[in-house]
Amino acid sequence: xxxxxxxxxxxxxxxxxxxxxxxxxxxxxxxxxxxxxxxxxxxxxxxxxxxxxxxxxxxxxxxxxxxxxxxxxxxxxxxxxxxxxxxxxxxxxxxxxxxxxxxxxxxxxxxxxxxxxxxxxxxxxxxxxxxxxxxxxxxxxxxxxxxxxxxxxxxxxxxxxxxxxxxxxxxxxxxxxxxxxxxxxxxxxxxxxxxxxxxxxxxxxxxxxxxxxxxxxxxxxxxxxxxxxxxxxxxxxxxxxxxxxxxxxxxxxxxxxxxxxxxxxxxxxxxxxxxxxxxxxxxxxxxxxxxxxxxxxxxxxxxxxxxxxxxxxxxxxxxxxxxxxxxxxxxxxxxxxxxxxxxxxxxxxxxxxxxxxxx
Length: 359
Hints:
By secondary structure, this protein is mainly α. The protein has 16 helices and no strands.
């Protein structure tokens, strides 16, 4: 046994010398002492022992964790659901962090700009950034000693307000989306009335008439045609409806459509709306390059939701039809006309597929 071990170690040492120095092993074999061979053998043997011990520890931890989960599942089923949701949420969060690191590395090494990324990478960066903005305050609160216990209670009592979607269960995802969408719907009428009022300031009589007719049509509960929205795009590149030329009050009504706070000075609201509108336009262009038919059902519903539609109440085919209409509107828009994209969150979603203000 000792001879075979020494022989094995001799072979391994020669292979290592060959790989590091690039010289044939035969030239170096006379200079390898039996003592060095035995020490190398002990090194390899101890490495195997450590790896075996590590595997044993991991397997025991997995067994203990499985027993703990079974105990919670049988004795405390409600707590188990919360525990399971949090564990899965942290897995998703860790995976998102790895994806963001990969995307950022690719952007740095290849010199790719954000607007040139593939759709899924661009959407991943957008969503993770929004999630982190929401999660950072909770993380700051949990820093003081023993504050994490209070934070855990708060997260249990107020999951919609404090937690990011990673830590929502499937039922909560549908419920919380419905709540957030109801907040958007409350501002639909104000956005339409603001459009109707602003149309009177348009110098072009034809465009003024077209915009007034469009607002009246949507207010009456009718879903507009894409061509009717395209017909008024000229009013959204400058005053009075350009992204930085709108009245502050109109901007404040648009903010909730994007889940932004309207309680900021006018110049900050205009800057934030412009940034989000351009981001949405770049997302649309990336989605057009990918092809909407490439999205799975979950991605499709998410794409509709961030553009103003409560997709959870619709079928998959209805979502695809609506997203197709949206991309028809955005595909021909210039960056100076992104204000129309924000108003389309009301124009296209208020009465789709039928009936005013679907919830």
